[in-house]
Amino acid sequence: QVQLVESGGGLVQSVGSLRLSCVASGSICSIEAMGWYRQAPGNHRELVARITSGGGTNYAASVEGRFTISRDNAWNTMYLQMNSLKPEDTAVYYCNAHTVVVIATTRQRYGYDYWGQGTQVTVSS
Predict the structure, then answer these.
(1) Residues 6 or more apart from 17 whose CB is under 8 A from it?
(2) Mean of pLDDT values over 54-65
(3) Fewer CB in a 10 Å sphere around the end CB: N or C, the chain?
(4) Which of 18, 20, 35 is nearest to 115 (CA)?
(5) What was the pLDDT predicted at 82?
(6) Residue 29 pLDDT
(7) Mind spelling out the 3-state secondary structure of the chain?
(8) Chain-centre distance of CA 7, in angstroms?
(9) pLDDT tens digits, residue range 76-94?
């Protein structure tokens, strides 16, 4: 089991900045990738950024160049630095952890996703 808790959301003016944090606990050794997703009312949840255990990163085209995802060495805290914020960035932001568990008896691999409770980001014009 992995538990995720986000923080850092709030109200900010356009072109302002925020930094989101996600603290992971539990079986963090099983995490292969972590990411940030966001969901605005009436919209589907979309990927914002992700980072793998090897350090590779991916960004949505709408945020690339403005947002930066990072993690600490112990993989227990992940960050999303958001600069040059736009009203279109307004959404609930969710922390995600993708884990892989290997069953010893069968040697089969199973993937599972864990989610935080979300933190509201509101960008005013």
Answers:
(1) 81, 82, 83, 84, 85
(2) 96
(3) C
(4) 35
(5) 98
(6) 82
(7) CEEEEEECCEEEECCCCEEEEEEEEECHHHEEEEEEEEECCCCCCEEEEEEECCCCEEECCCCECCEEEEECCCCCEEEEEECCCCHHHCEEEEEEEEEEEECCCCCCEEEEEEECCCEEEEEEC
(8) 11
(9) 899 999 999 999 999 999 9
Q: Which is it for the CA torsion 113, 23, 17, 65, positive or negative?
A: negative
pLDDT band for position 75 (cuts 50, 70, 90): confident
How far apart, in whole angstroms, are the C-alpha atoms of residue 45 and residue 66? Answer: 19
Structure tokens at 10: 């709030």
- 31-54 pLDDT, tens digit per residue, is 899 999 999 999 999 999 999 988
Q: Do 44 and 33 meet the contact criterion of CB atoms below 8 Å apart?
A: no
Query: Rounded to an integer, what distance in angstroms lies between the CA atom of residue 1 and that of residue 85?
Result: 33
Residue type, 45: R
